[in-house]
Write a structure and sequence with these properties.
486 residues, alpha/beta, FAD/NAD(P)-binding domain, Guanine Nucleotide Dissociation Inhibitor, domain 1, seven-stranded mixed β-sheet, five-stranded parallel β-sheet, binds flavin-adenine dinucleotide
Length: 486
């Protein structure tokens, strides 16, 4: 007999878990506080412009494909996937590096910057590929229940890779600061500084240079739409504008949730909302982690974002553009070590309409500007505007064009919105970082230690931040529920 399962939230992890649990024969209902599904990956459509509010980099296409294959489907059944060529462009203070869509082009670009660098690059990426195979096929598929999960031949023989950092590994092989920044960029997705991230995570470099950067036509929200359709086809009931106010517990076992004052009886409750918030839905006695526990964790950054409709096509830009024309170290310090608004921020700009006409009206450009910042910073309109001026001036200078007079509209999103829209802890954007002390079994657990029948999923638990890990997190928790409860 299937169980009645209530899932809180409709981000990637919740939708993934909903699909696996419904396929296993359970009666699954999703309750989302916002009026659309997708969580941090929602969409903004305005005056013919389409913006992905959150994720924009489609990496690790194999993980998405595997997800849909598990249901007898393929990504092709739902959306058209295009490989971006070039993958992205990085603006430095004195040069621009373009990352092509295969290794030969990337090696050529590395040689242009530092003669002889393509040889160590090929070796570095070969090692990264090896790590990727182990990470994706072995490590991330562990539920983080016990340290013994990691006691495998593959991990033991690479144990040094967990104690060295990606930063030391990169610096050992490359001297040019621009190449170092290029190779340290992918691990920023894991939410911590490269000198705090184990070198095993160089598998992100393989995801970048080896597997490439892709774009689902219509934007990242196409994946959410696909997962929603799949979930509904499998019988999942999806309820938006349903804010969960309480997780009900009787005699140490969950009995359901309270939504808009109404009790929904459930055998199992699974929360894909931010872990810290999920625990506040429980009486104090049933929470596993104290406020000081959360306060001591390394959180991934928050972000200041601008969604802009431009009335013309922009020049000298690609689909993805990184502005690393200021000091990487100084900005990282202002995110992690001495949290404060950055003096000279690095930023990222996404123009999906450069490669996908469907994202903007004819002759226009859809622009998404992102500055990573420390969580919990003061967030005011004045600060947002001050930072907008800083980056737009730099953007105009680096790309040699006027854009300020071509803005049709601009919307912003920052710390306060992450809290009000998603109940995000301290307004984090990307969850809890993957540092050595916050990896695998050292992360908040998928299963509650205090309440029977209560589970968690998403970017604050295993395996960690990012869309592919969130898809995997949903599968891991669904497998754990099957193992424990059925
Ligand atoms: C700006 C930005 C850019 C990013 N870029 C990338 C990228 O390019 N590539 C990539 O791979 N990853 C990226 N990420 C990370 C990625 O988006 C996340 O890791 C992933 O979407 C997290 O999914 P989740 O299921 O853990 O949580 P969420 O998406 O946060 O979903 C949680 C859901 O729970 C809901 N909820 C909260 N409280 C309640 C409640 N009480 N009742 C009901 N519902 C509730 C929330 O509204 C939300 O919908 C980005 C994130 C952001 C914010």
């Amino acid at each position: 007999m299937g169980k009645t399962i209530s899932i809180i939230g409709s981000g990637f992890s919740s939708l993934s878990a909903a699909c696996y649990l419904a396929k296993a024969g359970h009666k699954v209902s999703v309750f989302e506080k916002n009026d659309t599904v997708g969580g941090r990956a929602r969409q903004l459509v305005r005056d013919g412009f389409t913006f992905d509010i959150g994720p924009s980099w489609y990496w690790m296409p194999d993980v998405f494909e595997k997800f849909f294959n598990d249901f007898g489907k393929s990504t092709n059944d739902y959306y058209q996937l295009d490989k971006l060529s070039p993958a992205y462009k990085i603006f430095f203070s004195d040069d621009v590096i373009t990352i092509g869509d295969h290794m030969d082009q990337i090696c050529e670009e590395f040689e242009r910057i530092e003669a002889g660098s393509s040889k160590p690059l090929r070796k570095f990426i070969a090692r990264a590929q090896n790590h990727y195979d182990i990470a994706i096929n072995k490590v991330v598929l562990k539920p983080g229940v016990s340290p013994f999960e990691l006691v495998t031949k593959e991990i033991i023989t690479r144990i040094d890779q967990f104690f060295k950092t990606i930063s030391s590994e990169v610096r050992k092989n490359f001297k040019n600061p621009k190449l170092i920044a290029t190779l340290e960029f992918p691990v920023l997705f894991l939410g911590a500084k490269p000198n705090q991230t184990p070198s095993f995570y160089s598998f992100m470099n393989y995801a970048d240079f080896g597997l490439g950067t892709w774009h689902p036509k219509g934007g990242m929200y196409e994946i959410i739409k696909a997962m929603k359709n799949l979930a509904e086809d499998l019988g999942v009931s999806i309820n938006t504008s349903n804010n969960v106010e309480k997780i009900k517990v009787e005699k140490g076992k969950t009995t359901g949730i309270e939504v808009n004052g109404k009790i929904i009886n459930s055998d199992i409750v699974l929360s894909g909302a931010d872990y810290h918030h999920s625990e506040t839905l429980l009486d104090k006695a049933y929470r596993q982690y104290s406020e000081s526990y959360w306060d001591k964790r390394t959180f991934a950054p928050s972000s200041l974002l601008f969604y802009i409709g431009f009335d013309k096509k922009l020049k000298n830009v690609e689909h993805h553009n990184l502005f690393f024309d200021t000091d990487f170290e100084a900005h990282a310090e202002e995110i992690y070590d001495k949290p404060q608004w950055p003096e000279n921020p690095l930023f990222y700009v996404n123009f999906p309409s450069v490669t996908d006409k469907s994202m903007a009206p004819d002759g226009c450009e859809t622009g998404f500007f992102l500055i990573p910042i420390a969580p919990d910073l003061e967030d005011t309109e004045e600060l947002r505007e001050q930072y907008f001026d800083i980056i737009i001036n730099r953007f105009e200078k680096k790309t040699a064009q006027n854009v300020k007079n071509h803005i049709l509209f601009k919307e912003s999103f920052c710390v306060k919105d992450f809290i009000s829209e998603y109940n995000s802890y301290k307004g984090n954007a990307y969850g809890m970082a993957n540092t050595l002390r916050q990896t695998a079994f050292l992360r908040p657990k998928l299963k509650s230690k205090k309440v029977d029948g209560l589970y968690f999923t998403g970017q604050l638990t295993v395996p960690g931040p990012g869309v592919p890990p969130s898809l995997i997190s949903g599968k891991l928790v669904a497998d754990l529920i099957e193992k424990n409860e059925v």
